[in-house]
Design goal:
- By secondary structure, the protein is of the alpha+beta class.
- It has one domain (about 1-85): Fusion Protein Consisting Of Minor Coat Protein, Glycine Rich Linker, Tola, And A His Tag, Chain: A, Domain 2 (2-Layer Sandwich).
- Helix content is about 30%, strand content about 30%.
- It is built from 2 helices and 3 strands, in the order H-E-E-H-E.
- The chain has helices at about 1-15, 50-60; strands spanning about 25-35, 40-45, 75-85.
- The protein has a 3-stranded antiparallel β-sheet, with helices on one face.
Amino acid sequence: MRKRWGAQILARIERQKRKQKGNGQVRLKLVVHTSGQLQSVSLARSSQNPTLDAAAISMARRAKPPRAPRNLKEGNYPLLVTISFQR
């Protein structure tokens, strides 16, 4: 269940993607509450391109994570996601 929830969160983040100049991958560390509230977002691994790093963080902040499945204990859950940018 947690894996499926993580995939749903990533899909919502990906929907926020806008065209960027440059190629690269950004790894983000998210902390999401079971209510769907994004508690924090930070860089876990930079793309070495500050524009792409900022875009990925912005995408995560704009996304509206879904609520967690009911069988997950209420609380905050860490999640690592990778965002890929290609021209």
